[in-house]
Amino acid sequence: MTEAHPKRPIRGFGRRGFLVGAALTTPAIMVAQQVQSAPAARAEPDLPADSKLDTSKINKRKPPAQQQAVVGNTVPAFPGAEGAGKFTTGGRGHPVYEVTTLADSGPGSLRDAVSQSNRMIVFRVGGTIELQGGLDITGSNLTIAGQTAPGDGIAVVNNEFTVDGDNIIIRYLRVRGGDRMGTPIDTFKGEGRRNLVIDHCSVSWGVDECFSLYGNYDVTVSHCLIAEGLTMSAHEKGRHGYGGLWGGQNVTYHHNLLVHQGGRNPRFSFVEHLDQLVDHRNNVIYDYGFTSCYGGEWCEGINLVANYYKPGPATLAGTAPEIVAPGRGGRWHVSENEIEGHPEITADNLAGITVPVGGITHAAEPIPFPNEIRTQTAQEAYQAVLADVGANLPRLDAVDARLLADVRNGTGRLINSQTEVGGFPVLESAEPPGDRDHDGIPDDWEKAHDLDPKDPADGAAIGPDGYSNLERYLNSLQRDSAANPEVVITSPKQNQVFADAAAEQELVITAEATADGDATITAVEFFAGDKSLGVVKSAPYKITWSGVTDGTWYLTARATDSRGLKTQSTGTPVHVNRTTDLAGWTSTDVGDVPIAGAAALKGDDAFTVKGSGKIWAKQDAFQFVHREIEAGPSSIVEIIARIDRLSRVYEGVYAGLMIRETLEPDSPYFTGGIVWSAGGLKGHVSRFARFGDEPSISPYPWDDDELDAKPYWIRLIKRGTEFEAHLSTDSLQWTRIGYERIPMAGRVHIGLAVDGNQESNAINNYASADFAEVRVNS
């Protein structure tokens, strides 16, 4: 037995108590135990002894039969292909299918192209294919060559893209889901397939997950840009829009970029019928919100090696230093990963593992894999990924250029809709190169390589290197080395508030844009959401937006240079508030709010209230619309209101009624109202007396049930030191949802409260609520 590691901290979690790891003998096992004593009694465990993995004990189940073309093949999918799917052949040697239309279906469509097997699919048209229904790849032995699309390339949007065939190569394809369907779609998915290579694809804007390719066999996913799951969108579970479910038997994920994903960065999903054997290395994970990598329950072997983690604005403080939170019972090797800003985890990766109840096995050496990739350091991988990722042939588009700028600059945020960052970009087509024999190879290339541009058979002909002539042409395509332009909105600032009594306001928006090398900026187009506000063709890049109504708006600018390259700026949320007299009520931001709150009288006893921050014991920060009243020891005070609307900007944002002793952030208080929960609303009661650092919180319903999204009446009653909160759908039948005894002085502040559920990150949510029939009885 080798010498055990010195004592190191292993972080853990549990419903009760604290979890610790313990060192056992070979094979190295981290065991999570529950400590029932007080937090001060938490032990710092010894970590496991180093050990060699006995690979003979890995009992692989028999995978599905391979397509005959793959059996015995030793020619990589393309030069440089690596990993478990390296010898996938796709459509090699098979007839060409030309995609000639952007229509959803019919002859010449992508849907028709992937409906049958044994095809090399090329594009004679560029632009955006708007799906009317999910697109299923039902054929096998296919290559989808997105790099052949002329102009800006090709994108598939608006619905799910599912791989349901075997021996498939997909390269340089953009797949973007979005929220137009109003359903919880996965953007790109596939399960139970064998021999796949997904390379240089851009996948984004999933409602459930963006990229869920799991439970498959012999797969490589490489150089893919997987971005911006939609956080509070159409998913029935509320906050969702995750990176993806990954995993399988003999699968490789390398040099991919996960960007602005709240969770599943990724999640390695357990599938009963196969052995989970995964090599996950040299990937970059940026702005992983509330969970990092996790899952892998009972896995036979997962390598997490030399990945680069870069916390971003949405990354929670407690999540930032976490490499992985494994499910119990799995076998892992975790090494050489780097977490920017956390050198202690970079130096000791085992300290970045959150150990589960039941423990995991940690292998001292990487689990061996066939066709292993050439591993870079995490730093080298970070630079390599930013230099070459996503569907960058024929060119990087404005969306991906924005995302890469976010990674470099540490900007951006989780989004709830693609409209918050400009929406689906317009991809321009161009005249495709001449191809008289329709073999997929341009005539000029055929002539230059001693092929016959009038012979359709020579495209599929296999040469001595094992590649067809068409594949050699595809592999020869190179992207322009010029960088996309840079663009940033300089005014307004992020979360700037514009408050005025006028029903409509005027905003001046300015941007700065620069082009790479000797290129010049030819246009800057400004957007509010996905609506164009106008185009400016020369500096200074400034536009005046008139008629701006009350609400939160997301501003972006799209710069185009003289080469035709484009970049969208990162989104800039701004808040336009119409102010009114409050008829005897006072609007106050209690505590240190990140965004100034606002209130407006909408009619008799009806208000719109906007706020940020979080109601939280001695650190309250929220918007409070209030009156000061006398409430002596024997008096009874009551406030009633109907909450008609609470904006669904983030899970946990709150609107309710409150009684508090003072306007200081550490004042005793009692508040009851509603919050956005996982799939609907919940009643929410919070109270704080004077002692401790946390409030007492209770939900309603108390179980996992939720309330329908509709108006609710809330009532607070104060009888001396006793407080009650009630909820009703009609103001006639009431349910008590909270109670507390809190001593308060004779005069109290009573009113309407809204917060943005501020979390431990750099993102500031701004919630808005409509209250009606507000009454105070005392």
Automatic annotation (TrEMBL):
Q: Name one GO biological process term.
A: carbohydrate metabolic process
- Under which name does UniProt file this protein? Pectate lyase
Gene3D superfamilies (alphabetical): 2.60.120.200, Immunoglobulins, Single-stranded right-handed beta-helix, Pectin lyase-like
Q: Does the keyword ATP-binding apply?
A: no
Q: Which residue positions does the secretion signal occupy? A: none
Region Disordered: start-end pairs: 39-69, 429-465
Entry superkingdom? Bacteria
Q: Which GO terms describe its molecular function?
A: metal ion binding
The family database entries (PANTHER family) matched by this protein are listed as:
PECTATE LYASE C-RELATED (PTHR42970:SF1)
Q: List keywords of the entry alphabetically.
A: Glycoprotein, Metal-binding
User: According to the UniProt entry, which residue ranges have a biased composition of type Basic and acidic residues?
Assistant: 43-57, 433-457
Annotated InterPro entries: Ig-like_fold, Pectin_lyas_fold, Pectin_lyase_fold/virulence, Polysaccharide_Lyase_1, TAT_signal
Q: A Pfam family matched by this chain, by name?
A: Big_7
